[in-house]
Amino acid sequence: MSVMTSVIPHGRPFTVDDLEGMPDDGNRYELIDGMLLVSPAPDWPHQEMGAELFFQLRLRFPPGVRVLTAPFAVRTGTDSEVQPDVLVARFADLNRRSKNLPVAPLLAVEVLSPSTRLKDLNLKKAHYERIGVASYWILDPQEPGSLTVFELDDEGCYRQIAHVEGDEEFVATSPFQVTIVPARLLDGLRPG
Asked: Which of 18-24's residues contact partners 24+ apart within 8 Å by CB, and which partners?
């Protein structure tokens, strides 16, 4: 019997406890409402864009918040655990002994990949909206690079507030002030 066969629940949705038995095979295992999402390891453009955004946010975060990267997870129930590529959380919501954030972060960021594009644009976006993530950013590493920004409105629904490409600037005010230029997040892909 393979490891994977032994952890697949029969006749019930997946739970976060089931994630502990998943193989350490380089895939990312996440849950939304008991549904298992499996994503392969990201490619270089995905990693470059996410890492550079993490660096830019870390340079500017104010007291009281922290910037973290996957595989740090957001676990808001026994049937849901997701790993945003980058997240911003309140310091007070973090626990040094935990590998999970138990509440919605202030910002969740997903970097699109061919294998995750539909999940990030639909399923994860709906999940982040439902759990109350105030800001959701989607980065696309396809040249020239882009950033799409959603923020919760007064009814708790996401509204797109910005879309910038290439050398266009986005000046964020939430969760803190920072200027992001998508093309600059991809500079590491070029020699120099």
From this structure: 19/81
Beta carbons within 10 angstroms of residue 76's beta carbon = 20
Q: Which residue matches tokens 């797109």?
A: 160
Backbone angle region of 33, left / alpha / beta, with phi > 0 → left and psi within -120 to 50 → alpha: left
The residues, ordered by sequence, that sit 6+ positions from 4 with a Cβ below 8 Å of its Cβ are 22, 23
**pLDDT tens-digit series, residues 161-174:** 999 999 999 999 99
Residues 22-56: pLDDT tens digits?
Answer: 888 888 999 999 999 999 989 999 999 999 999 99
CA 50 to mean position of chain CA atoms:
9
Could you give all domains of the chain from N- to C-terminal order, each with its CATH number? 42-189 (3.90.1570.10)
CB-hemisphere CA count at 13 Å for 21? 13
Region class of 170: left (phi > 0), else alpha (psi between -120 and 50), else beta = beta
